[in-house]
Design goal:
Strands 1, 2, 3, 4, 5, 6, 7, 8 and 9 form a nine-stranded antiparallel β-sheet that branches. The protein is elongated and about 65 Å long. It is α+β, with helices and mostly antiparallel strands. The chain contains four helices and nine strands; from the N terminus they run βαββββββββααα. The protein has one domain: Bactericidal permeability-increasing protein, domain 1. A hairpin with a 2-residue loop joins β6 and β7. The structure holds 2-acetamido-2-deoxy-beta-D-glucopyranose (2 copies). One 2-acetamido-2-deoxy-beta-D-glucopyranose (NAG) binds next to β7.
Length: 261
């Protein structure tokens, strides 16, 4: 399947200085602690809570509401055959993320995180020409999508690097798998305002939300991965790793800071 998604970045490269002292929303855990996973679950929860309103000191915009200027979707094959753009996108709900599990690989430091988001609302202005569930759809106008009870499994590939005497996480890739409990949606002005068709088509898409959401899965997966990668890179390029994990090994094997007692 060929998909091209161009997500205009929600983030701009940071001009701010990284944290030199541990910010109050960061909880420190120790990998040698047998209860590391519990500690880490609380720590990541605290991080999500802080991300909701954003962290202007490191140029991080709010996660809730999350504003994305434009998402362009070109998908050539399969049940979704779409050339679509979504403009002025506002996503609400990520501020209520509940962290269910957080693990860190003690060798590679890759993160494994499982979260649940009770309700997400994505709204914007769409411009669509294509097929969903083999129904030809054409239109432009306001739209909203509301996935509820979304559980997301996130695997983040991580490398370590040193900067200014600190070791940092370099999050290089994010892999996402998700499930949703329900999807509601509405696209206004489908078929350029033939309202009987608009209503019956929206009703059909909602009645068949499961295959609709399956057909949108590649698009949504990639979108969530891009958003998470942007946020995680911005955080972890600015937050020294030892503020999160105090017994992190320095990337530099000959570091003088290797203070094992
Ligand atoms: C949410 O989904 C999970 C697993 O997918 C399920 O166990 C749980 O009962 C659902 N909760 C609600 C409120 O629907
Ligand atoms: C992070 O990893 C990527 C991919 O390996 C690499 O291109 C980039 O230079 C790294 N960044 C830092 C600051 O080490």
């Amino acid at each position: 399947m060929k998909i091209i998604i161009l997500l205009v970045s929600v983030l701009y490269s940071s001009t701010a200085e990284h944290y030199k002292t541990k910010p109050s929303f960061v909880k420190t855990c120790s990998l040698s602690d047998p209860d590391f996973d519990d500690c880490s679950q609380e720590a990541v929860q605290s991080l999500f809570n802080a991300l909701g309103p954003g962290l202007p000191e490191i140029d991080l915009p709010s996660l809730d509401p999350l504003k994305i200027p434009k998402i362009r979707i070109l998908q050539g094959e399969g049940p979704v055959n779409v050339n679509a753009a979504l403009d002025d996108v506002i996503v609400t709900g990520f501020g209520k993320t509940i962290v269910l599990l957080s693990q860190v690989d003690s060798k590679t430091y890759d993160f494994y995180t499982k979260v649940r988001v009770p309700k997400i609302r994505i709204q914007g202005t769409y411009d669509l020409k294509g097929k969903i569930l083999l129904i030809p759809l054409v239109g432009r106008g306001k739209c909203w999508f509301e996935p509820s009870n979304m559980t997301i499994d996130i695997v983040s590939d991580v490398k370590l690097y040193d900067k200014g005497g600190f070791t940092f996480f370099n999050v290089t890739q994010v892999h996402v798998k998700y499930n949703i409990g329900l999807l509601k949606l509405y696209m206004h002005n489908l078929f350029d305002g033939i309202s009987s068709l608009e209503e019956s088509t929206n009703a059909y898409l909602n009645a068949n939300w499961r295959p609709v959401s399956e057909s949108l899965r590649p698009i949504l997966t990639k979108t969530i991965e891009d958003i998470l990668l942007g946020f995680m890179q911005q955080i972890f390029h600015n937050l020294p790793a030892k503020f999160m994990i105090e017994d992190i090994k320095s990337n530099n094997l000959f570091s003088k800071k290797d203070e094992k007692e």
